[in-house]
Description:
- The complex is a heterodimer.
- In chain A, 33% of the residues lie in helices and 17% in strands.
- Chain A starts with 5 loop residues before the first strand and ends in an 8-residue tail after the last helix.
- Chain A has a single domain (6-171), classed as Aconitase, domain 4.
- Chain A contains eight helices and seven strands.
- By secondary structure, chain A is of the alpha/beta class.
- In chain B, 33% of the residues lie in helices and 17% in strands.
- In chain B, helix 13 runs parallel beside helix 16.
- The radius of gyration of chain B is 22 Å and the shape is globular.
- The model of chain B has no long low-confidence stretch (mean pLDDT 96).
- Chains A and B meet through helix 4, helix 6, helix 7 and helix 8 of A and helix 2, helix 3, helix 5, helix 10 and helix 11 of B.
- Bound molecules: iron/sulfur cluster (SF4).
- The site of iron/sulfur cluster has 13 residues of chain B, from helix 12.
Amino acid sequence: MDKFISLQGIAAPLPIVNIDTDMIIPKQFLKTIKRTGLGVSLFYEMRYDNDGKLINDFVLNTSPYDQSKILIAGDNFGCGSSREHAPWSLKDFGIRCIISTSFADIFYNNCFQNGILPIVVSAKQLDELMAAASNQQEFQIDLPDQKITVGDISINFDIEEHRKDRLLQGLDDIGITLGYQEDIAVYEEEQKIKKPWLFQNK
Amino acid sequence: MSNQGPKTLFDKIWSEHLVRQREDGTNLLYIDRHLVHEVTSPQAFEGLKIANRPVHRPDATVAVADHNVPTINRQNIEDPQSKIQVETLAQNTKQHGIQYFDLMDQRQGIVHIIGPEQGITQPGMTIVCGDSHTSTHGAFGALAFGIGTSEVEHVLATQTIVQNPAKNMRIAVNGELPFGVNSKDLILYIIGKIGTAGGTGHVIEYAGSSVQGLSVEGRMTICNMSIEAGARAGLISPDQKTFDYIKGRPYAPSAKHWDQAVEYWSSLPSDKEANYDHEIIINSTEIDPMVTWGTSPEDVVSVKGLVPSPDSAKNENKKKSIERSLEYMGLQPGTKITDIKLDKIFIGSCTNGRIEDLRKVASIVKDKKIASHVQAMIVPGSGLVKKQAEEEGLDSILVNAGFEWREAGCSMCLGMNPDQLKPEERCASTSNRNFEGRQGRGGRTHLMSPELAAASAITGAIADIRDFK
Lengths: 202, 469
Ligand code: SF4
């Protein structure tokens, strides 16, 4: 997985609440069997018109926001389906950090599996950051120091230690868990005795 | 979480499945059953292949294709991409020795319908699936939640998942449900009350006499939409109804283990003194038949109500969001809900595609005709639901009324197959999401119960089942 240490650049403002995963990547793009190539379809229905032409005033279609690595969005970002295609498409577009007042659980989790940093800030902070993003100010995201800096705004954010470590090191979760194979085997042996019906062959 | 003291149902399942804490402080939770479908699994199997990792417990894994499948001609999937996705699932499951219900198998259906139907879903289990509506299985007192594809891969490789405990929320609904009000109304009402982010970080346990009084199928409808309230999972204490439902199903505990299983299941309900991080109490008489008017499942209103005005919003953000929804939905504030005219009716999905739902619809439309301007479609949740309905003669009642009778699958719940709304078409849907574009680009969805959808099919506008004769 790609490491995440720090990030610099302008941020795209998307002041909509409850942005759901159907909006991030609509169903017709879920038919892929690959993780890559979804960036062109990100926010498809907001980004393209019925004839498939770019809608000029959508933020990610306008320069310099078409190069954004950071997205600032309204409350409850990523609600809806569990599709990991949502973070895949964001990442394929180039987004590595999303800032909102809250995220839906599964989406939040999926971000970390893909080297994307979701940051939770207060409603007041979000307003400030949204304004800074609209003014095309340069953002600086620093994960080791857990800090967002833009102009004279400086915001410290929280992140669970284990998530931070994994992002910083780009670690594969399965590899870590396979280190506990013996514990899993012991657990299974106990359960076979305690709840044999869970292991019965049909 | 301490081992002593009163525990919730969630606490009990959690502690039974904790393998150990990893060094980074996260918990490794054992997964009893893993359900797999075609859309969220190809990249997970690909990941295993690249890393040369086997599936840890093929015997605890069951797969089915449901999202992409056509509901008309099963022999041939026309969309080449859908076809590849379904074929990829068949190949992957074959290679790893995983049980797969193919398209010609009568047991094929929506993954959350067939788990319970086959008896795979049981109390006290941990169940995951790369699908947010995995919460459905919580109706049996199983801790069941949706995961992303990376986690699907993790579960395939290790039969565990990395998790931290959720917070406990209890929502008690007390009293008899008023006439015309059922489980769908109850969950829509709850979502309207707590909002789509109201349950974030929580597992919601539904309790109280209204919930206990529901059938197991009605309980599934409630737990199904927990995700629409932001919760990771929903839970309902297992009871005799639950056990009776499971008994004798193909994957149910064998006769040899049955008593032992029931004894264990009976120990699961939350202890009386257990603590919850949040508690909400609802009186059933507050609840009307409910309908959504907007583009979020929290945009609900009584069928007797009016489309809201942006001026009623508490803050500027909410006001903007109402304006955006109204524009998308093509609705004027103050319109009576029952004056909203419909183009399509969709009955089906993992929320309301079970035999009980089909029976209700059939009883309402029997000897009647759907309105001439309406197109109505009914998609059974599984091949077995379809078979059962046909044995009961429901299909001919429905077809005579003007409904199209389809093969099982997710269908127009999300329109990954050819069943989609056209721009500006307005649909009464028994599914769970009314997001922009969910049922087709520009399509307008009103979520409601099967009863309301059936009555609406006849009148051609959103109908109150209580006024319907
Ligand atoms: S019926 Fe709808 S909600 Fe249920 S699994 Fe299928 S697409 Fe998802």
